[in-house]
Design goal:
about 280 residues, Elongation Factor Tu (Ef-tu), domain 3, Membrane-bound Lytic Murein Transglycosylase D, Chain A, 7-stranded antiparallel beta sheet, two-stranded antiparallel sheet, 6 helices, about 25% helix, elongated, Peptidoglycan-binding protein
């Protein structure tokens, strides 16, 4: 029988080149996520209900209970305190002198954490269709006519299965800072040494600005964009990035005076016009 995988806290201590993995003593029996969005209301006289306006997302929270026990090492004189285990977690809410804040942490248990399959599970029919779109978009540069039509129809099929392209927001761990730790000690030796404890740990999602911009990949088809053309890129792939439709490469070509979409110069800046 295989040994169960241990949940770990991967700690990114300030100034260290490699993170430190701190395994829990016993895996949690359950954990819960809490994600919410801030919604504003636009009051318009005469309407039955106010209009709802998305303002921003709120930091996601992960809450879990961890059990610790050192009774197997003895319960009498000279017993080992359970704090030798609990303090490994408790220290993660303490302020690092050089960071002036607690360390950045990532909770990892398995590759099937909630959020792993956003935008279609890897290896699923949805993911395969998404990959087909990308391949068809690149092939369109060599044979613009038929290939672009194929990419467009394939993209529509993938969109119906996958929905919006959210694959960049998948995760296999929960990067966070420790928001709170509640320690409950329930068993003691005759000398008063704590031997058993339960920690209730609340983790608050941590994301840097740069990471969020790369992850969200925000794009507005109704606005003008400037795109630096990369080596190997074709107009169909550029259209797929900004419009989610590789077949809409022609407005880009017309707006930038491109007569032959198969002959592109890397490094030039393309003006991506809004779709009307």
């Amino acid at each position: 029988m295989n040994e169960p995988a241990k949940a770990i806290f991967r700690v990114y201590w300030f100034g260290l080149d490699q993170p430190q993995d701190i395994p829990v003593q016993y895996n949690p029996t359950e954990y819960s996520f809490d994600k919410s969005a801030q919604i504003g209301e636009v009051q318009i006289p005469g309407l039955d209900a106010p209009l709802q306006q998305f303002v921003r997302g709120n930091a996601e929270k992960l809450t879990l209970e961890l059990f610790f026990d050192t009774t197997e090492l003895g319960m009498g004189a000279g017993a080992t305190s359970v704090t030798t285990e609990t303090d490994k977690i408790y220290q993660l809410i303490k302020i690092e002198p050089k960071r002036h804040a607690p360390p950045i942490v990532e909770f990892i248990w398995s590759h099937e954490m909630a959020g792993t399959h956003i935008g279609g599970a890897p290896g699923s029919v949805a993911a395969a269709l998404t990959q087909t779109v990308s391949g068809a978009a690149q092939a369109a540069g060599a044979a613009v006519g038929a290939a672009v039509q194929a990419a467009g129809s394939t993209g529509a099929a993938a969109q119906s299965v996958v929905g919006p392209p959210l694959g960049s927001q998948r995760r296999n761990g929960f990067r966070c800072i420790i928001e709170s730790i509640k320690q409950k000690f329930t068993l003691f030796s005759p000398e008063g040494i704590p031997l058993r404890a339960t920690l209730t740990v609340s983790l608050r999602e941590y994301k840097r600005l740069r990471d969020q911009l790369l992850e969200l990949h925000l794009s507005s088809p109704d606005r003008t964009h400037v795109h630096p053309l990369q080596q190997g890129e074709v107009l169909a792939s550029v259209a797929n990035r900004y419009y989610d439709r590789p077949s809409e490469w022609r407005p880009i070509a017309e707006n930038n005076g491109i007569d032959d979409p198969r002959r592109l110069t890397p490094g030039v800046f393309l003006t991506i016009p809004p779709l009307t």
